Amino acid sequence: MSDDFNPKILGFLCNWCCYAAADAAGVSRFQYPPNLRTIRVMCTGRVDPAFIVRGFIEGADGIFTGG
Amino acid sequence: MGKGMEHRAGSVMVVGGGIAGVQAALDLTELGYYVYLVEKAPVVGGVMAQLDKTFPTNDCSL
Amino acid sequence: MLTNADLLALDGKPGDFTAKIRQRPRYIDADNCTACGLCTQYCPKHLVDPYNEGLALTRPIHIDYAQAVPATYYIDPSSCLHLTHDTCQICVPVCQSHAINFSQQPEEISLKIGAVILSPGFGRISKETLAKFSYGKHPDIVTAVEFERMTTASGPFLGEVKCFSDGRHPKSIAFIQCVGSRDLGCNNGYCSSVCCMYAIKEALVAKEHDPEVDITVYYMDIRTQGKEFDKAQLRAEAMGIKFVRAKVADVTPWENRLQLTYSTLDGRHEFVPHDMVVLSVGLEAPKDAHGIAKITGIELNQYDFAKSDTFDPLTTNVDGVVVAGAFQGPKDIPESVTQASAAAGLVAGMLEKQRGQGIVHTEYPEEKAMGEEVRIGVFVCHCGINIASVVDVHKVEDSVEDMEGVVYHTDSLYSCSADAVETLKERIIEHNLNRVVIAACSPRTHEPLFQETLKSAGLNRCLIEMVNIRDQCSWVHAGEPDAATNKSEDLVRMAVAKARGMQPLPEQTVPVTPKAVIVGAGIAGMTVALTLADQGFDSVLLEKGKTLGGNLGLLNHTLDASETAAKLKQLVAKVKKNKKIDVITSAELVDFSGFVGNFSSVVASGKKEHTIDHGVVVLATGGHEHRPGGYLLDENKKVLTQMELEKRLAGRAKNRAPDSIVMIQCAGSRGDDLKYCSKVCCNHAVKNALQIKELNPDSQVIVLYRDMRTYGYAEDAYREARLKGVIFIPYEIENRPEVYEKGRKLHVKFFDELMQEEMDITPDLVALSVGIVPDGTEDLSKLLKAPLTDDKFFLEAHVKLRPVELPVSGVYVCGLAHGPKPVDETIAQAQAAAAKAAIPLVKGAVSVDPIVSTVDQDKCIGCSLCVSLCPFGAIEMIKVGKRRKAQTISASCKACGICSSHCPTFAISMGGFTNEQITDQIIAFGGVKEKETADVA
Predict the structure, then answer these.
(1) C401-459: per-residue pLDDT in tens?
(2) Cβ contact C358–B34 (<8 Å)
(3) What percentage of chain C reaches a pLDDT higher than 90?
(4) Mutate to test the interface with C, among B23, B35, B36, B54 (most CBs of C within 10 A)
(5) Gap between the Cα atoms of C342 and B23, Å rounded
(6) In what order do the strands lie in the sheet with C757-761?
(7) How far apart (Å, rounded) are the C-alpha atoms in residues C742 and C762?
(8) Given C472, C486, C901, which is nearest A47 (Cβ)?
(9) Number of CB pairs, chain A paired with chain C, less than 8 A apart
(10) Are residues C468 and A23, on separate chains, in Cβ contact within 8 Å?
């Protein structure tokens, strides 16, 4: 392992706002670190706490919900 | 879009493809009419597309 | 859609017009252009970018912005080297999809149409007018549109505000209001109605970028009269933005700064430096207004906008031609959107008999059976170089080789191109695929296209999962190809995991009862009923009073001097005569249930109760004058409201126009009992003041105001009132005028900002501009589960884009129930509400996106937690045998999933986003870690 902490982040993005914003970031060619893996949901209301627990179990270093 | 004469019953021409024209065209389509949206510029959207945010909520305008 | 097109001629009559259009060539074939942008990179010529207000450079071959529609590039013929000098053509071989075609010629097209909507927008204030403020003499004087592009995060400066002169960040910015508005010098006597709002917005944005920046707005009146607009102004003040009431006379460049010359109300002359000056430019009539008028035959008003009438705001003098948007008069986005819907509604009424004849229907093959076996096909898109220049597309494609369920994979240059879509369809059939994963761009833009393809290949449209490896991967990790490839592989693996669990979801439609219930029979409600009747729909018009007409019956005339009584009489007669409108007076809505298309209302009227089944409901409940305390209203009979004054002036009493009167604006509004501005009171005061001057020219009329909000053409009346000797004196909120009795005299005490002294006068009458409060919205809000604003008006679904719809599907709002507004705006809004309400009625069925929730009633324990949590009222409890069970009302469900994530027994499942699918995605995400560790080791 290298010394640099290279976290794996799981993201739940709301289709209407955060996912759209992530698209807009792309359109604007904003650059950000490639550590995020996303799951699109129709609303962050869909995010069951169980998903977050499961994310950590599966090895996420951090979980992001955007909505 | 074909050349020459187009004929469709129940069609409406909207002149100007800014926010008003686009909204009118969308509503007419939903109401069961065929719409020709005629816009001078190469893109629709008009001035609203130039705006960054909108008053008073400062939402994104796109 | 005909872009790059000019209207040349219009002939014919309503229902049968012929329009001649000339379409100029764009030199790029729209069917082939994939908007990859390669051509712009290679184009050798520079062009000042008009989209960015000249703040950036682009190339003759370009697209204005990434989200442009149509998403086809365009060659500017006035700057392209080939089109101007017959050279170059570098772009032609560069384009991989062979879309560039210099042989295109202008085409003339004739259209047969039934009606025309004119929405050409507005024009720019001339350079000569701007030059009065030294625009063009110094680079740090910019227009508000230029400033907007500057503060745009995706704009040429990435949102950074810089002085053009030397690139420094301005420490102080001045906004000058009313540039090209309220200015007879450039023949724009009207108020543009939007500049105060955008100036505040831009000032707030600039302040967000740099909290240290000092911003001053120089204004005559702050006209934030729209719904909830005053709050934004207060927020701006709280953030330290300064508002100075002064007309700026001159801007003088002085060393590297700009000196503003102005004088304030109290007579002080100031000479103040700023780093940057923003001109709040007004809206002018469109440049080609005269051309449009000539072609279509419509009349223009004195300012070259379309001529319009208070009671028919959108119709023109030419039958079959209606106007909408800023061409009808300067206005903001929600007003434009409202008028657009209204215009659509009017046209739909005119062409009722032709409805549906021009619409093209697409047929799809029957869906084939799924079979047990999971057969996933993975398609990875290069998007030209957009993805492939960063992500190793072949590596991503190869990574799915051994994944469970994947039976086919391939790549394609452009998955969305017409031929690739055809190929996708063939592959689905050839390999008997029953689930599709496409790794390309955003499902938000392209999923509908691929869903269509699935349908045409005989698959349910829910059997696709898109992976966004462009917008959210290659574009944002351009410098890290390995990491981006890795991320793409992960995302594809997660998508495949989800895809395994995808199931076909039934397309649900719910039939619609083709009838509307309209609550309130004022001008708004009656207009809705008539507009719907024109389109062929029945409605039931409920009125709580005994007569129709509402507040309009209390008015005598409008500002443009139309008699209201005659109009109202006509309107009421029309409503009563119309067979499609059923009027119930003394009516009260006592119960309401159901969902869009299938509402059921119980209406009490006298001793009778009616049950009405209907598809939509429009709320037009209106409002009434507020009666504020503290001004002796109802205590001294010399104190009246503007409405009472209007009635008195319309009467026959000899002394009906007093010899002296004080009008107090915002009595009870804008921070008094009511927090908001009621939009109509300034016009009302000016109207009554003019009437008094008409009857009694020697009368002393004093108007005490905070900001005179005579926006739009009402500015003309305000000017007229001043010319006729009406005295307007501003007051500050902390120094409200005081009305009191002493002996038998009525006194008004106020601070005269002009003379800088305390005044105490004894007028014959005091008229209060009292503001408007909504009627009965709280009860209706509970009954319909429709939210209200803090001020008790109904809250629309989207302030800008859905101004007449409520968040509850099938419920619409217009008139004073939505917010205070004058008659013409009420009528346009009512027409818009009627147009929107007609949409489900026309369709006859409400189609439901299949991703709604479903309740497994075997698992449901009937706790009804979901019912209380659902923000859309989309879950109901029903009796199944002896037990209570939850059930989704599909037509109301918005697929948010709150119910599903809270259900204690996991009984609620979301179509396309099941617990299992998301968990599988998370597990597939987990696979990342193991592999990563293995790689590193």
Answers:
(1) 989 999 999 998 888 877 788 899 999 999 999 999 999 998 987 888 899 899 999 99
(2) yes
(3) 69
(4) B23
(5) 10
(6) C738-742, C745-752, C757-761
(7) 10
(8) C901
(9) 130
(10) yes
Q: Number of folded domains in chain C? A: 7
Q: How many residues are listed for chain B in this entry?
A: 62
Q: How far is CA A64 from CA A35, A49, A52, C469, C483, in A?
A: 11, 12, 9, 19, 19
**Is residue C475 domain-shared with residue C516, that is, in the same domain?**
no
C816 with C688, same domain: the answer is no
Residues C137 and C258 in one domain: yes
CB contact under 8 A, B20 and C842: no
Residues of C in contact with A38 (CB under 8 A): 472, 491
Can you give the pLDDT at residue C354?
Answer: 84
Q: Do A49 and C921 touch (CB under 8 A)?
A: no
Query: Alpha-carbon dihedral of residues C27, C32, C35, C39, nearest 10 degrees?
Result: -50
Give residue A24's domain range: 7-45
User: Domain of C873: which CATH number?
Assistant: 3.30.70.20
Q: Is the pLDDT of residue A37 over 50?
A: yes
Q: Is the pLDDT of residue C930 over 60?
A: no
The answer on C277 and C133 residing in a single domain is yes
- Same domain as C78, residue C142: no
| CB-CB under 8 Å, B24 with C343 | yes
CB atoms A31 and C67 under 8 Å: no
Domain count for chain A, please give it: 1
Q: What is the CA radius of gyration of chain C?
A: 32
Give Cβ neighbours of residue B27 (< 8 Å, ≥ 6 apart): C340, C341, C344, C345, C835, C836, C839
Joined together, the tokens standing for residue C49 give 């970018």
C849 vs C322, which has greater pLDDT? Answer: C322
Instruction: Pick the closest to residue C505 from C872, C869, C902, C895 (CA basis).
Output: C895
Of C1, C116, C151, the CB nearest to B15: C116
Most trustworthy range by pLDDT among A20-24, C95-99, C282-286: C282-286
In this complex, the chains that touch B, judged by 3 or more CB pairs closer than 8 A, are C
| pLDDT per position as a tens digit, C5-50 | 999 999 999 988 999 999 999 999 888 887 778 888 899 999 888 8
Chain C adjacent subunits, 3+ CB pairs under 8 A = A, B
Here the CATH number for the domain that contains residue C533 is 3.50.50.60
DSSP-H helix ranges across C751-805: 777-784
Let me know if residue A61 belongs to a domain.
no
Q: Which chain C residue's Cα is nearest to A2?
A: C936
Of the residues A5, A27, A31, A47, the best mutation for testing chain C's interface (the one with the most C CB atoms within 10 Å of its CB) is: A27
Residue A25 located in a structural domain? yes
Tell whether A54 is covered by a domain: no
Residue keyed to tokens 């509004």: C669
Please tell me if residue B60 touches chain C, with a CB cutoff of 8 Å: no
pLDDT of residue C245: 93
Listed residue (C433, C389, C442) closest to C410, CA to CA:
C433
Higher-confidence position of A67 and C211: C211
CATH number, position C488: 3.40.50
Please indicate, yes or no, if residue A18 is contained in any of the structural domains: yes
**Measured between CA atoms, how close is C233 to chain A, in angstroms?**
26
Cβ-defined contact of C477 to A31 (cutoff 8 Å): yes
Do both C301 and C249 map to the same domain?
no
Smallest Cα distance from A4 to chain C, Å: 13
Domain boundary among C262, C281, C300: C281
Helical pair B19-30 and C823-843, crossing angle rounded to 10 deg:
40
Residue ranges making up the domain that contains C384: 376-500
Nearest CB to A39 within list C443, C902, C921: C921
C8 assigned to some structural domain: no
Would the CB atoms of C154 and A40 count as touching at under 8 Å? no
Examine the pLDDT at C632 and tell me if it is beyond 50: yes
The ipTM of this complex is 0.95
* Torsion angle (degrees, nearest 10) of CA C225, C229, C235, C237: -20
Please report the pLDDT score of residue C928 as a whole number.
53
Q: Hey, is the C-beta of A53 within 8 angstroms of any chain C C-beta?
A: no
Q: Are residues C276 and C298 in the same domain?
A: no
Residue at which a domain ends, from C222, C252, C281 = C281
